[in-house]
Write a structure and sequence with these properties.
Elements: E1 2-9, H1 20-32, E2 38-46, H2 55-65, E3 71-74, H3 77-80, H4 84-97, E4 100-103, H5 113-146, E5 159-161, E6 168-170, H6 177-186, H7 192-201, H8 214-222, E7 229-232, E8 235-238, H9 247-260, H10 264-269, E9 289-295, E10 300-306, H11 307-312, E11 322-323, H12 324-338, H13 342-390, H14 395-423, H15 433-449, H16 452-462, E12 463-468, E13 474-481, H17 483-488, H18 491-501, E14 518-526, E15 542-544, H19 551-556, E16 570-573
Parallel strand pairs: 1-2, 1-3, 3-4, 14-16
Antiparallel strand pairs: 5-6, 7-8, 9-10, 10-11, 12-13, 13-14, 15-16
Length: 591
């Protein structure tokens, strides 16, 4: 009888008793003990038994259909397949080819019904054994994750994997770059593509030796391993490795990632000369405006147009387009004029202080509730442990309940710390006229003398959004630098930074620490009107929470999980423009 041998091991079975060599020796010995049996072909492979698409198995089936042997011999049924359905399909194919299936260690004969039933039963046990093994592996990985060990996958840039402890350890020659990436993203407000360009210009390469790309930078920015966490099966656990990035910096990066999104408009405008890239949103279709150019006989004309209109035409979106030069000039003039309004700053900060006082009462009430819940949860954990120690509760019941309560307690502690911080916040003092004048000169110097990347990074830092409010009008919303930032850096220092004191790539707002860059307070919104506009008067500022901040901002009145000093309020005064010498207007270029 012509016999084909099939032997298989999984990828994790190289050092097990059922090695390929051991299986082949056993099967040859078995064949030699049978009369008139001889080997015609050996099929050997290393693959999962749950997969039916295996190269050597496919060759065996093709040879069976061609009539090259009479019997397939395996060491055990699970070497052929660990799936009941897969084994049934294989058996049908062999039956159709007139080939008998045998196992050297399991007594059955597939030529009769009893033997076929035995094969099916063995396949059931093989599938059960595989499922049990997977469950054990998952449980083991969960325990590893709970201990803070690395659970597999590509190592994050800046770390290596200790082969003895399976934990992440700092890779000194790479560890300085991830914090630098976060700093460029959160404080310089550079985009991922521009960061990649700068890293490549400085000679940096990824862990695989390739140039940095936009996606590789985003991978760093989204990886929670840099704040000391590990991930397994949808959950993050506290890792045993040191963090390379502060949690508040990481949180600020996530806020910016969420605000910028991953849409084409932000990607297209990221490294361009369009100062307001990502700041304008179409009021009709809610897509971002893109910067684009049209070339005449002598000049290049720059515009901002809605993405839908630009790609699909006016029938899709009939929104207007704005001449880029006029729009950018109008927004920059409005930005400079804002710093002449000390009274506006004072009213804004006073209003924030009032709102913060109201919020503090809410936070203190919630803090008391959290403290009570935390005490009750910790007491419940102690009761379950006491019941287990006394023998009145099983380990399985106690363990699952204690694990659930421990998770709840951890969440309550996090919320307690967050509320304690929010209750202790202090309101900044309004900037003086001298400080505003110094910052205005600082911005004017950058706009007048800075290179396009410098001006763009300044605008991206200070302009939160530009709202399209009418057919030919827009409403800019500005971020206002913190008072302590203006006090910590004199005018000469700021001018030095603009004139070459920072690396190529853009203007960095003066700061001493990540949380000192921006005030708790203000985005100022200037309402636009017709030019010229000469109505006098002033009005009080009122708090306005923009729609795009989401429900949790509107519920609390500020961002409860954002970076401290990270723009929780936007203040809007509907009559501010009336008291300014010039309001903002974007004039459509009919030429």
């Amino acid at each position: 009888m012509r016999v084909a041998i099939y032997i298989r091991i999984s990828t994790d079975e190289e050092n097990q008793p059922f090695s390929l060599e051991a299986q082949e020796n056993k099967l040859r010995s078995y064949i030699s003990s049978q009369d008139d049996w001889h080997v015609v072909q050996i099929y050997s492979e290393q693959a999962s038994g749950s997969a039916t698409e295996r190269p050597q198995l496919n060759k065996l089936l093709a040879a069976a259909r061609a009539g090259r042997f009479d019997l397939v011999l395996v060491y055990r049924v699970d070497r052929f397949s660990r799936s009941v359905r897969g084994l049934a399909q294989l058996m049908d194919e062999l039956d159709s080819a007139g080939v008998v299936f045998r196992s050297a260690t399991e007594p059955f004969d597939t030529s009769d019904p009893a033997g076929r039933m035995m094969v099916q039963m063995l396949a059931v046990f093989a599938e059960f054994e595989r499922a049990t093994l997977i469950d054990r592996v998952i449980n083991g990985m969960e325990r590893k994750a709970a201990r803070g060990e690395w659970c597999g996958g590509a190592r994050p840039y800046g770390y290596s994997i200790d082969p003895h402890t399976n934990k992440l350890i700092v890779k000194e020659d790479e560890a300085g770059l991830p914090p630098h990436i976060f700093q460029m993203y959160t404080h310089k407000r550079l985009g991922a593509k521009e960061i990649a360009n700068q890293l490549n210009d400085q000679g940096h390469r990824t862990k695989t030796g390739k140039p940095w790309s936009r996606n590789s930078v985003l991978t760093v920015l989204r990886n929670r391993a840099y704040i000391g966490e590990v991930f397994f099966r949808g959950q993050y656990h506290s890792g045993a490795h040191p963090a390379l990035v502060e949690e508040n910096v990481f949180a600020a990066a996530q806020e910016i990632l969420t605000a910028r999104g991953d849409d084409r408009a932000k990607r297209a405008g990221n490294a361009s000369d369009y100062l307001l890239s990502g700041c304008l949103t179409c009021p009709e279709c809610h897509k971002n405006y893109l910067g684009h150019a049209a070339h005449g006989n002598k000049y290049r004309y720059r515009y901002y147009s809605c993405y839908s209109r630009l790609r699909y035409g006016k029938k899709t979106c009939s929104s207007q387009q704005f001449p880029a030069d006029q729009l950018e000039r109008a927004v920059l003039e409005a930005l400079l004029e804002t710093y002449q309004r000390t009274d506006l700053f004072e009213e804004a900060i006073a209003e924030v202080a009032r709102r913060r006082s109201e919020l503090a009462e809410h936070y203190r009430a919630e803090l008391t509730s959290v403290e009570t819940d935390l005490a009750n949860t910790e007491a419940a954990i102690e009761r379950y442990l006491a019941a287990f120690e006394s023998g009145t509760m099983s380990e399985s019941v106690c363990g699952s309940r204690v694990k659930e309560l421990a998770g709840k307690a951890a969440q309550l502690r996090d919320r307690h710390g967050e509320l304690a911080r929010l209750c202790s916040q202090e309101t900044e003092a309004a900037p003086t006229q001298e400080e505003l004048a110094a910052m205005r000169d600082h911005i004017h110097h950058a706009v007048t003398n800075g290179s396009p990347p410098v001006v763009k990074n300044l605008v991206q830092s200070l302009v939160a959004e530009v709202r399209i409010t009418g057919e030919r009008t827009v409403q800019p919303v500005f971020r206002i630098p913190a008072n302590d930032s203006m006090q910590a850096h004199d005018h000469q220092t700021q001018v030095r930074l603009l004139s070459g004191g920072v690396p190529p790539g853009g203007f960095e707002p003066p700061h001493t620490a990540p949380e000192a860059g921006w005030c708790h307070v203000v985005f100022l919104a200037l309402t636009c009107g017709e030019l010229p506009f000469s109505v006098s008067g002033a009005g009080r500022c009122s708090v306005h929470i923009p729609w795009w901040l989401g429900e949790r901002f509107r519920h609390y009145g500020c961002c409860t999980r954002a970076l401290p000093r990270a723009y929780p309020f936007f203040l809007c005064s509907p009559v501010v423009a009336a008291s300014l010498p010039r309001a903002v207007r974007a004039v459509k270029d009919d030429a």
